Amino acid sequence: MRTYEITNVIREGVLEETKNAILDLFAKHSLQVQSEEDWGSKRLWHPARREEQGHFLFFRCLGKPGEISKLEKDFKLNTNILKAMVIKANG
């Protein structure tokens, strides 16, 4: 199992339902959430899916590399997730 840092930018106004959907995706792909941070709402530098504001969520998770690629595909299918970035953490 590796440690990953996952940052999501989600649409304004659908914070709770999208956050629950993200946590459900983590459970579906057997990821263990170590920590979770809410970075708040910020203006986006470039519009994403015609949105100029986004709410940022940060997660540190443990998971298998094969599951991470499947998770990224599921992030793209959710229209409330404007952007998602997954990086492998050191250590």
Summarize the structure.
30% of the residues lie in helices and 52% in strands. The protein contains 2 helices and 4 strands. Strands 2-3-1-4 form a 4-stranded antiparallel sheet, covered by helices on one side.
CATH superfamily membership: Ribosomal protein S6/Translation elongation factor EF1B
Number of domains: 1
Figure out the total of helices.
2
Which CATH-level-2 architecture? 2-Layer Sandwich
Compressed to H and E, one letter per element, the order equals: EHEEHE
CATH class: Alpha Beta
Features:
globular, 91 residues, Alpha-Beta Plaits, 30% helix, 4-stranded antiparallel beta sheet, 2 helices, alpha+beta
Characterization of this structure:
This protein is 30% helix and 52% strand. It has 91 residues and is of the alpha+beta class. It has one domain (2-88): Ribosomal protein S6/Translation elongation factor EF1B (Alpha-Beta Plaits, 2-Layer Sandwich). The N and C termini lie close together (11 Å). Strands 2-3-1-4 form a four-stranded antiparallel sheet, with helices on one face. The radius of gyration is 13 Å and the shape is globular. The longest helix has 14 residues, at 15-28.
Secondary-structure topology with pairs:
Elements: E1 2-10, H1 15-28, E2 32-48, E3 51-63, H2 65-77, E4 81-88
Antiparallel strand pairs: 1-3, 1-4, 2-3
